[in-house]
Design brief:
By secondary structure, the protein is mainly α. The protein is built from 16 helices and eight strands. The chain has a two-stranded antiparallel ribbon with strand order 1-5. The protein has a two-stranded antiparallel ribbon with strand order 2-3. Strands 4-8 form a two-stranded antiparallel sheet. Helix 1 runs antiparallel to helix 4 (about 115-135), helix 7 (about 220-230) runs parallel beside helix 12 (about 410-420) and helix 12 packs antiparallel against helix 14 (about 450-460).
Length: about 525
């Protein structure tokens, strides 16, 4: 990988780490590591940094000494970048900002020199390299604590490799920290590596719901396996529907359960800090934030601030960036007859959806979207807030306490139903599973089930949760003309885009730096 993208990584020692990670493994103040000075490896400090890569962007709080070079630090956040590539080009999300690269994302027009794709590629490779460092430094240790930490770090590494495989396909691959240029691994081979890693670490992970909140357990491993198997045909050419159903069912049958109130999953006390919000029973792996100790312009801050404008009801924080809102195609999932009422309920939300998941704000908004650069064209998404379900005070008026529910049980219900249907299993069981999920949100039961109905249900349940691009590719709908949505390809009514965009390009700068790499077709 090109060192342009990755800062503070050295063959012998790495990372100047100075962080306070109260939300991962306790308060830490880790001394900087100078590669020219012999210094003890701080195992707990680097372990904390591995988890911190999911939430934080550098060494000095929300800005300052960022992990990834060549991109605005706030934009370099793990979750924000995954959101950008999996949501902006989809039928759910449209961003009105005019920053470089946004239009290309909205309209599926990116190139090998796209800054946000470079940033995501750099972020994921940085995270993998950090994991490699930890695993190298602990490979001779067999105490119980280290064995468990190594399993969790291998899980985090597998998760980062999953996104590299999903988004970029054939990518540089190494399991060691080295100055040598890495070889390029084929997508199907990386799939097999990820599968083997997850299967191998399962026994060393925490039992379900026994890990400290914010750390991965066996159920997180099962859910990532179900994601992997659900998309196996895309990655390898061979479907694994039965395996996807098996691991999704394992998640459903675990000690985790659906939260009783859908909206509570996306509120600032979703960590169980109050007596009202029961979201913690559903959230398998959160990306943790705290308004004082863990702050970033990516992650939860981005989800809340980017979707809100000052004319909306209180959302628990002063930041309002007014950039990201829904496409009409998403709203149509809740109103399939095209009759979208613009009146609102007592909370300012769209009324008459008969589905608690329809968390949209319509006052002063217009549909259809005539101008993609106008935030008021398109309904606002009010799904994420910094409010507490118990009405209590949050820690900051500027920075959020909301934990991103990165992995949650609701996804497993949808994966199980789809995989069951695709594998020739019981359509009645698939329908019952979907209706059980809908009942949580007071949505009327469906009478029939099909793959397209499940895809729509995935949108209703998981919108703006970074799944949509991958889902559309699995269905064969992301490119081509089989499914058009507003502003697909830059046309108001939607138009076909080339199938090359089912994969993103290896950044041109890395191709220039590593002659072992071959670009994806079409770029």
């Amino acid at each position: 990988m090109n060192s342009k993208y990755i800062k503070s990584i050295f063959p012998i020692a790495l990372l100047a780490i100075t962080l306070q990670v109260t939300s991962c493994v306790g308060d830490l103040d880790v001394k900087p590591i100078d590669p020219n000075i012999v210094q003890d490896f701080d195992q707990d400090g680097v372990f904390a940094k591995v988890y911190a890569t999911m939430a934080l962007t550098g060494q000095e709080g929300p800005v300052g000494n960022g992990d990834v070079d060549g991109i605005d630090e706030g934009t370099s956040a793990f979750y924000r970048l995954i959101f950008t590539i999996n949501q902006y080009p989809s039928d759910e999300t449209l961003c009105s900002w005019t920053d470089d690269g946004i239009a290309e994302m909205n309209f599926i027009r990116w190139s090998a020199s796209h800054g946000m794709l470079e940033g995501l590629y750099g972020r994921l490779n940085f995270d993998v390299t950090l994991c490699n460092h930890f695993l190298e430094m602990t490979e001779e240790d067999a105490d119980e604590n280290t064995v468990r930490q190594r399993a969790e770090v291998r899980f985090i590494r597998a998760m980062n490799f999953f996104y590299l495989m999903d988004i970029f396909g054939n990518v540089p691959f190494t399991e060691v920290v080295t100055s040598e240029l890495p070889d390029q691994i084929q997508r199907a081979d990386l799939y097999k590596f990820i599968e083997n890693e997850l299967l191998d670490i399962e026994d060393d992970m925490y039992a379900p719901m026994q890990a400290p909140y914010g750390r991965a357990d066996k159920v997180a491993c099962w859910l990532l396996l179900s994601r992997l198997y659900l998309n196996a045909e895309v990655y390898t050419g061979t479907a694994q529907w039965s395996a996807a159903a098996t691991y999704a069912k394992a998640v459903m049958d675990s000690s985790y359960d659906l939260a009783p109130v859908y909206s509570h999953l996306f509120m600032s006390d979703n960590d169980g800090s109050g007596s009202v919000n029961k979201a913690r029973q559903e959230i398998i792996l959160p990306i943790r934030y705290h308004g004082i100790n863990t702050t970033s312009y990516g992650g939860a801050q981005f989800l809340i601030a980017a979707t809100h404008r000052d004319d909306m009801n209180p959302w628990g924080v002063t930041e309002q960036w007014a950039g990201v809102r829904s496409r009409e195609a998403l709203i149509n999932k809740f109103f399939p007859n095209g009759n979208i009422p613009m009146d609102v309920d007592e909370n300012g939300m769209v009324a008459a959806a008969s589905d608690d998941r329809a968390l949209f704000f319509s006052i002063g908004r217009e549909l259809p979207i005539e101008n993609p650069s106008e935030f008021l064209n398109g309904l606002s998404v009010a799904k994420f807030t910094n409010l507490r379900a118990d009405g209590g005070a949050v820690t900051s008026s500027v920075w959020v306490d909301l934990d991103v529910p990165f992995m949650r049980v609701g996804e497993a219900y949808l994966t199980y139903a789809e995989a069951l249907l695709r594998s020739g299993g019981s359509s009645e069981t698939a329908l019952n599973v979907i209706n059980e999920l809908r009942a949580r949100s007071n949505a009327a039961p469906l009478a029939t089930i099909s793959l397209d109905i499940i895809l729509d249900e995935r949108s209703r349940e998981l919108y703006f949760e970074t799944h949509r691009r991958t889902d559309l590719i699995r269905y064969g709908y992301f490119t081509g003309t089989q499914y058009l949505w507003d502003w697909k390809g830059g046309s108001a009514t939607g138009t076909s885009v080339s199938s090359i965009y089912n994969l993103c390009p290896i950044p041109a700068a890395d191709l220039n730096a590593n002659e072992k790499l071959v670009q994806n077709p079409g770029y």
